[in-house]
Design a protein that fits this description.
By secondary structure, the protein is an alpha+beta fold. It has seven helices and 19 strands. Helices cover 23% and strands 23% of the residues. The strands form six sheets. It has a five-stranded antiparallel β-sheet with strand order 1-2-3-8-5, covered by helices on one side. A five-stranded antiparallel β-sheet has the order 10-9-11-17-12. Strands 4-7-6 form a three-stranded antiparallel β-sheet. It is globular.
């Protein structure tokens, strides 16, 4: 299987399978002299870790990261400094239950990559999907934690803004609430927690699943990142976000809403600020114009489809050409979009870090 790498200067290669002994990533192109701690990487992985509430898969994985290369430890023993050589990170799999998938070894699960993998490669890893499993995304989160350190002053945050037909009230937006102990949904709206709870409890008890919309925001992005034709910043952000498992749509800034309003409403007007720099009066463009960052916050949203692994029987076929009914046993997220929030943050951070290094290499600043 080819195409396991993304990025140009900040390049990330991921490896491993859902039910193999471990998963990991190799980050190539990270500049030397970047200081970080293991705890900072682990904190991001802990946000994505399964088994933290009844609303996500109960697979028990500590997701403890091991950093194997590309760094020098400082005297305190925890702080690490990048050397400019490839950085390899490893996460062991400790709670696989391959037997849960025995019944679908020869059956194609509707909504999954089973059939397409078989069509392309002539075989597939039915144990949780192998490389197609969202388990692989833990390694992207580890890479994204480091990518945040590459761009000085960069802040990347994400939130779940809709689940099924339930949406947050943006008037209640509170970034600080997202990490609250009583918030299992990464929602920025405290009033949405009981609504999402009742809704998803009903979905879960019915053996079904539901999708979600995630919004990710990057602040502190300097103006000038990207290129106007084939290396647009928004182009690469969309590619990174679309590569996340179960993502079926991506939009930047006002996105599809821009098709329903007038030019007067959509244009981000400008005025000179007291600091002698142009200031935007709105941000419908989501921080990117002509493929190049404006210096405003970069805003992207992506739609995550319902988890395809459900207990409700669905019609399908098997490898022998027979019509079959398939229900998927095991431990699965009733809304995989919940744990997609830190993944979206990581992929946005990686795209920005990559373009920051490209910009620096092209312009020297």
């Amino acid at each position: 299987m080819s195409h396991n790498t993304f990025g140009h200067l900040f390049r990330v290669t991921t490896w491993g399978e859902s039910h193999g002994p471990a998963i990991g990533c190799v980050i190539d192109g990270c500049p030397p002299g970047i200081r970080f701690t293991r705890a900072e990487i682990q904190a991001e992985l802990d946000k994505r870790r399964p088994g933290q509430s009844r609303f996500v898969t109960q697979r028990r994985e500590p997701d403890a990261v091991k950093i194997l290369s590309g760094v020098l430890p400082e005297e305190d023993g925890d702080t690490l400094t990048t050397t400019g050589t490839p950085i390899s990170m490893l996460i062991e799999n400790v709670d696989q239950r391959s037997k849960d998938y025995g019944e679908i070894a020869r059956r194609f699960r509707p909504g999954h990559a089973d059939f397409t993998y078989e069509a392309k490669y002539g075989l597939r890893d039915y144990r949780g999907g192998g490389r197609s499993s969202a388990r692989e995304t833990a390694t992207r989160v580890a890479a994204g934690a480091l990518a945040r350190k590459v761009v000085p002053g960069l802040t990347v945050r994400g939130a779940l803004v809709a689940m099924g037909d339930k949406a947050i009230d943006r008037a209640n937006w509170d970034w600080d609430f997202i990490g609250h102990a009583d918030n299992p949904f990464f929602t920025p709206d405290p009033a949405s927690v009981p609504v999402f709870t009742d809704y998803l409890d009903g979905i879960r008890k019915a053996g079904s699943s539901v999708g979600a919309v995630i919004e990710v925001v990057a602040e502190g992005v300097p103006a000038g990142l990207g290129a106007p034709i084939y290396a647009k910043l928004d182009q690469d952000i969309c590619a990174n976000l679309m590569s996340i498992n179960a993502v079926k749509g991506v939009e930047i800034g006002n996105g599809f809403e821009a098709a329903r309003i007038t030019g007067e409403e959509n244009a981000d007007e400008m005025r000179m600020g007291n600091d002698g720099r142009p200031h935007f009066l709105s941000n419908n463009a989501g921080g990117i114009l002509g493929g190049i960052s404006t210096g405003e916050p970069i805003v992207a949203r992506f739609a995550v489809k319902p988890t395809s692994s459900i207990l409700t029987p669905r019609r399908s076929v098997d490898k022998d050409g027979h019509d079959v009914d398939v229900l998927t046993k095991g431990r699965h997220d009733p809304c995989v979009g919940i744990r997609a929030v830190p993944i979206g943050e990581a992929m946005l951070a990686c795209a920005i870090a990559d373009h920051y290094l490209r910009h620096r290499g092209q312009t020297g600043r």
